[in-house]
Write a structure and sequence with these properties.
Strand content of chain B: 15-25%
CATH topology of chain A: MetI-like fold
Order of helices and strands of chain B: EEEHEEHEHHHEHEHEEHH
Number of strands of chain A: 0
Number of strands of chain B: 10
Structural class of chain A: mainly alpha
Largest sheet of chain A: none
Distance between the termini of chain A: 57 Å
CATH architecture of chain A: Orthogonal Bundle
CATH superfamily of chain A: MetI-like
CATH superfamily of chain B: P-loop containing nucleotide triphosphate hydrolases
Radius of gyration of chain A: 21 Å
Distance between the termini of chain B: 73 Å
Largest sheet of chain B: 6 strands, mixed
CATH architecture of chain B: 3-Layer(aba) Sandwich
Helix content of chain A: over 70%
CATH topology of chain B: Rossmann fold
Structural class of chain B: alpha/beta
Number of helices of chain B: 9
Oligomer: heterodimer
Helix content of chain B: 25-40%
Shape of chain A: flat
Shape of chain B: globular
């Protein structure tokens, strides 16, 4: 490994990591919103929305992100919707993640006994108030571990962004290998930067889990 | 002349083929304490859940203050603000401390001022002897304390009537008393209450009237003394006998003695 080469690549990787992190975070934020909405629709068994959410969850979880991105990036322009690569990346990640997040939220919601909801209803709360003030806060503590696992998973999935020519970490590494045959240095930096992004997320997740466990909602 | 607060008319509740409540009718006057007793599975708890509209009903109607309880989603929250319910397993919200458990619904549902609700909650807590536990979480409280908090939570909504569903059934014996004392005090204040219980002595002490339910029907309806001293039906006599014990003499068992 050549130290000079590594040092000269650093700015490229830094920019790529920034792009990966930025688009990844945006996609994850949207996926959390989509997941929460889908889980709520399924939990409340809202007639049509619940079926739509179930269908969406199956489609999003059972198709590869690569295909979803191709669909958005090459497919949408064919029907006259102009997009750019970054928007496609975020949308693709949100589409994929939404299904996983929905299932994580759902597992939490289902872990809360029905009697808690009834107790809230008997105090005159509406279904929504019971969900928002009573069921959801408890469900979140159950959902945090799978949600954090999904965050890590989605951040890793951003490596597929390179397929729609977004200059993320993966793209940068492949580019440098193609241009300079600097395989060792490029791959080393690729792994290092992914770890740099993901390790803090994992550690933060563990801390959050532990805090919630000590908050111990056990009755 | 007291007014009639609650009227149940020909209430029918079925789970599939199984009829749990079969044309139940009774009335509750304002300020009255009605105790409902009966063997397990006779439909006592279901009856309370129907009145609070937690269960759909298949026939009959329930009137609150002369108005039929409508079961569309919009009017249910209004109804349930007028009829409080306390559950067997407390059902406190584990993520909130005692005070927040009590004040959540008055603030969010009735839109009352926080300061005013907290003041009322604290004075209610003081009355049940739990003022110093206001900031404890449910997991830090004993069963009896949790149930008293749950009662305060229902009271803080200022309901016109209260439903108590076997509120001492999950408690250790020595905690039963502290909860029952709270109910006795409420009865003394002239609260309108429907109490489902297995505590027969308590039932006798607190009731203005006793309903004996069996097989989804009201078998007997009487004043407490009349019911406990001279039950009219064979079914009630048999039920009450299960709460008394014959004295068993210590007897030498043959074969082991020399």
């Amino acid at each position: 490994m050549d130290r000079q080469v590594i040092l000269s690549y650093l700015p490229l990787y830094r920019d790529a990591a920034w792009l990966t992190l930025r688009l990844g975070c945006m996609g994850i934020a949207f996926s959390l919103l989509i997941g929460l909405a889908c889980a709520a629709a399924r939990y409340r068994k809202t007639p049509i929305l619940s079926a739509l959410a179930a269908a969406y969850i199956e489609v999003s979880r059972n198709t590869p992100l690569l295909i979803q991105l191709f669909f958005l990036y090459y497919g949408l322009p064919k029907i006259g919707i102009r997009t750019n690569a970054a928007a496609c990346g975020v949308a693709g990640l949100a589409f994929l993640g939404g299904g996983y997040m929905a299932e994580a939220f759902r597992s939490g919601l289902e872990a809360i006994p029905l009697s808690q909801k009834e107790s809230a209803l008997s105090l005159g709360m509406t279904e929504f108030q019971a969900l928002w003030h009573v069921v959801l806060p408890q469900a979140l503590s159950v959902s945090v571990p799978p949600l954090m696992a999904n965050v890590v998973f989605l951040l890793k999935e951003t490596s597929v962004f390179s397929a729609v020519s977004l200059m993320d970490l993966m793209f940068t590494a492949k580019d440098l290998i193609g241009l300079y045959y600097s395989t060792t240095e490029s791959l080393f930096l690729l792994v290092a930067f992914y770890l740099l992004i993901l390790l803090p997320v994992s550690v933060a997740g563990s801390l959050l889990e532990r805090r919630l466990r000590y908050a111990g909602f056990g009755v | 002349m007291s007014r009639e607060l609650l009227a149940v008319e020909n209430l029918v509740k079925r789970y599939g083929e199984n009829t749990v409540l079969d044309k139940i009718s009774f009335r509750v006057q304002e300020g009255e304490t009605l105790v409902i007793i009966g063997p397990s599975g006779c439909g006592k708890s279901t009856l309370l859940r129907c009145i609070n509209a937690l269960e759909p009903i298949q026939g009959g109607r329930i009137l609150l203050d002369g108005q039929e309880i409508s079961r569309d989603a919009k009017s249910l929250p209004k109804l349930r603000q007028r009829i409080g319910m306390v559950f067997q397993n407390y059902e406190l919200f584990p993520h909130l401390n005692a005070l927040d458990n009590i004040t959540l619904a008055p603030i969010k549902v009735q839109k009352r001022k926080r300061a005013e609700v907290v003041e009322e909650a604290m004075s209610l807590l003081e009355r049940v002897g739990l003022k110093d536990r206001a900031y404890d979480f449910p997991r830090q409280l004993s069963g009896g304390q949790k149930q008293r908090i749950a009662i305060v939570r229902a009271l803080c909504m200022r309901p016109e009537a209260l439903l108590f569903d076997e509120v001492t059934a999950s408690l250790d014996p020595e905690m039963v008393r502290e909860v029952l004392d709270v109910l006795l005090a409420l009865a003394e204040q002239g609260r309108t209450m429907l109490i489902v219980t297995h505590e027969m002595q308590f039932a006798r002490a607190v009731a203005d009237r006793v309903l004996f339910l069996d097989g989804g029907k009201i078998v007997e309806e009487a004043a407490p003394d009349a019911f406990f001293d001279a039950p009219q039906s064979e079914r009630a006599r048999k039920f009450l006998r299960t709460f008394t014990f014959e004295t068993v003499k210590h007897q030498k068992i043959g074969g082991y003695s020399k």
